[in-house]
Amino acid sequence: xxxxxxxxxxxxxxxxxxxxxxxxxxxxxxxxxxxxxxxxxxxxxxxxxxxxxxxxxxxxxxxxxxxxxxxxxxxxxxxxxxxxxxxxxxxxxxxxxxxxxxxxxxxxxxxxxxxxxxxxxxxxxxxxxxxxxxxxxxxxxxxxxxxxxxxxxxxxxxxxxxxxxxxxxxxxxxxxxxxxxxxxxxxxxxxxxxxxxxxxxxxxxxxxxxxxxxxxxxxxxxxxxxxxxxxxxxxxxxxxxxxxxxxxxxxxxxxxxxxxxxxxxxxxxxxxxxxxxxxxxxxxxxxxxxxxxxxxxxxxxxxxxxxxxxxxxxxxxxxxxxxx
Length: 324
Description:
alpha/beta; QueA-like; Thrombin, subunit H; six-stranded antiparallel beta sheet
């Protein structure tokens, strides 16, 4: 068991960072990691259904990414929407912050945005005169490691095919591999967790337990709760679905909504999740720590080393790993 953040580091050749998706969603490679034997196999995501067992339920996050990046071109100011805090009022990140002091107004996204408060962490509370037109003026919040601005292709591909409930500012990326035809052939259910910008933030603490996890909104509908309770094994698609499942109290799942700031890292013992499909995550990230809690620190880093050796594509638009 490791509690030093530095122990979750690894070296990744920059050419393995996927900044563009493959032409076909389900064409990704899939490393299969067996927790019981330590075995590693190299497969295609199209083989995913063959790894399901009778009674399995595949659990997916149907949150939809909003076009959260707003640019005020006349003042060269960026407003990054985090989440709403009231009618036409959002908690935001702004860049450059020195231009967005309390009381400052700018024209953006077809309306006026005014800074009504500056929070201790540097975030701004921004009130809009009318609802900002995100579809027309907003940009997809693609990750900074893409080292490029979003474009029209990202409007489709940085979104799962089953995205339904607007609210995320980052994609639940393990779901990007799924197509309608793959979904049609497997037992599945949806829950919602709105991915926040905290998913981009580095862990600044030296010790894992000193990191403060960000909070995110979730919802489980009655039909989903019923199906979760009837399943023999829950196969979580991504760390976001996993965090919702593991944040629920012991006993049968119940429908409801709320917020979770659960931080899953070794030596956490999973109570709900039986298998996990996930992408390859950044070094020293809370996402990598979650996967290490599920499969073991040494085994996961051995799998990552194997993926690098085999030239897997990493991060949001990259390949995936199935942990069973």
